[in-house]
Hints:
Layout: E1 18-22, E2 25-32, E3 35-41, E4 51-55, E5 58-62, E6 67-72, E7 77-81, H1 84-90, H2 92-96, E8 103-108, H3 121-133, E9 139-143, H4 151-171, E10 179-183, E11 204-209
Parallel strand pairs: 9-10
Antiparallel strand pairs: 1-2, 2-3, 3-6, 4-5, 6-7, 8-11, 9-11
Amino acid sequence: MNGPGLRAAVPDPRVLTRICMLLGCLVLLGGCARNELVVLLEDADGGTGRLDVRHADQQTTLDRPLAAARVSVLSDLQPVAVTAAQVRERFQDALAAQPAPESRFLLYFQTGSTELQSRSRTALQALFDEVGRRPAPEVLVTGHTDRVGEIETNDRLSLARAERVAQLLIGRGLQGDIVSVAGRGEREPRVPTADGVAQADNRRVEVTVR
């Protein structure tokens, strides 16, 4: 059960204030043809990256939260100071158009099976709630195993675990074409172990909701 590729949320191009993702930077652009303001914001993980802004033969670098530059065809490129409140006021349309940050959930399984451990009940309900809150969710479900058993067997088991969670989501009304599943076998343990070691934290499914 393989879903389609992830879709990018694109704001209405008619809105003069707009938002774009550049090299891991969250950048707001606002203004008109004669006066453009560029503001660098933190991304969902708290990073900002680095953005070089060029105008004619001038250049300035934005590399911290709320770093900003004003570009004018009538004058030049100028670094400017902005506050979070000013950004919220000026770019409210662009900020409202951002997709919600992705959420991640861990579900743990009984050894050698697709049965969830009891400790995963709370996380499973939280997953259902998160999917229900989003108007157009996209879900990636990735299964894993510990290192007990053969590699080929664990590949099949990890995929079966992912498919089990996907079916639980579909049973709650989620459309199957927005759920992608994958099995990684024993290749990506949360807790590194020697071969043949049973480790409960590695028998899991990781779910990413966008």
